[in-house]
Amino acid sequence: MLPGATAAPGSLPFVDALFTATSATCVTGLVVHDTATTFTIFGEVVILALIQIGGLGFMTMATLIAFVLRRRISLRERLLLQEAMNQGSMEGIVRLIRRVLVFALGIEAVGAVLLALRWSSDMPAGRAVYFGVFHSVSMFNNAGFDLFGHYRSLTGYAADPVVNLTVMLLIVTGGIGFIVLSELFEFRRTRRLSLHAKVALSMTGVLIGIGALVILLFEYTNPRTLGSLNTGGQIWGALFQSVSPRTAGANTVDITGLRQATQFFIVILMFIGASPGSTGGGIKTTTFALMVGAVIAMLRGREDIVMFRYRLHPERVSKALTVTVVALLLIVGVSMGLSTTEDAPFLTVLFEATSAFATVGLSMGLTPELSVPGKVLISLTMFAGRLGILTLAYAVGPRRGRELYRHPEGKIIIG
């Protein structure tokens, strides 16, 4: 809200400033004001800093500051890092954080160089470098903020192979999780991947592949989207729109021009989201894989859920079911709330609610038109989505005591 942050000083109401800060910190990308035309370079840098902090996580950034200041990481901080990275022990946690920082900053630097080189033919060199850095950080952290103005995102580069490939790789590497990136880095030495890495990578690939085929099937004759592109552009467009719901929020075709079937399919992709320990949101690919595995095991009459020759503990299924059901209830509740406060079709409202919860940032045009209660509701949804369902539940739920007895087992009829 500082006068130097906006093009027209004093033009940004508090609730809009809060919404923008929440969207950036939660790496969502939903905006009530166009970033390029509303904010100055100073305002854009503030947004970029919030994206970087929100994407890497507070504890990771605190560790980076400790490294720079050559300060020793205390036992308490190591315990917090262990929890933040979902690790089973503190062994090697500082080494992992150091590797996370190197991966993140290195990938962002490479992406910035590639994008700057591509855009140097469209704009002055200094502007191209700035655009390259901003969009590389934004896309790696799955934020979706852009500087092209008038809510266009990357629609001007729908058929551009360099921009498409660079941005998609940034989104995917940021969305598969830092633990998986670390294992891939060590693969040449260890020649093995953990079960988590195998599931995360395979589900990411399957969702992107199936998503691209479905979007291409629904949209290749749509003159408002892929129908206006040549064959190469249609393939790039379908791939990009399949990758973006990994919680990135960028788009190369007009989301409002998509057919309703495609829009609803993107809602499903957004709900699944990225992988655990990443810059993305959603219920996560591993949760979805576990739910699918449980359904398959039940249909086949098997007691155990087996993935890559590993049997999964029933507790994992209960946790996955809890995350999925609570996420669904949250989206339903937010959609009902927005249907009350906003005058918009239900699919538009559902799209917005899911995008906020999964910290995606894709929009069908409702965000800039939100009422004040709608902005507050979406801000809270983005915050809850970025924290995570289980984190939120542990934070606000009652503390568990010891269970001194168990009730007798009962049976109910299912189906």
Which SSEs are present, and which pair or pack?
Blueprint: H1 14-25, H2 35-38, H3 41-56, H4 58-68, H5 75-84, H6 93-119, H7 125-140, H8 161-175, H9 178-190, H10 195-219, H11 231-243, H12 260-272, H13 285-299, E1 305-307, E2 310-312, H14 314-341, H15 346-357, H16 372-387, H17 389-396
Helix pairs in contact: 1-3, 1-16, 3-7, 6-7, 6-8, 6-9, 7-8, 8-11, 10-11, 10-12, 12-15, 13-14, 14-15, 14-16, 15-16
Transmembrane segments: 45-69, 100-119, 162-185, 197-218, 320-338, 376-396
Pfam family, one: TrkH
Subcellular location: Cell membrane
The average pLDDT value, as a whole number, equals 89
Contiguous runs where pLDDT drops below 50 for at least 5 residues:
none
Q: Could you give the distance between the termini?
A: 55 Å
Number of helices: 17
Strand percentage lies at under 5%
User: Number of DSSP strands?
Assistant: 2
Protein model, in words:
- The chain is an all-alpha fold.
- The protein has one domain.
- The protein is 61% helix and 1% strand.
- The protein has 17 helices and two strands.
- A two-stranded antiparallel ribbon has the order 1-2.
- A hairpin with a 2-residue loop joins strand 1 (305-307) and strand 2 (310-312).
- Helix 6 runs antiparallel to helix 7 (125-140).
- The longest helix has 28 residues, at 314-341.
- The model has no long low-confidence stretch (mean pLDDT 89).
Summarize the structure.
With 415 residues, the protein is mainly alpha-helical. The chain has 17 helices and two strands.
Structure characteristics:
mainly alpha; two-stranded antiparallel ribbon; 2 strands; potassium; potassium transport; transport
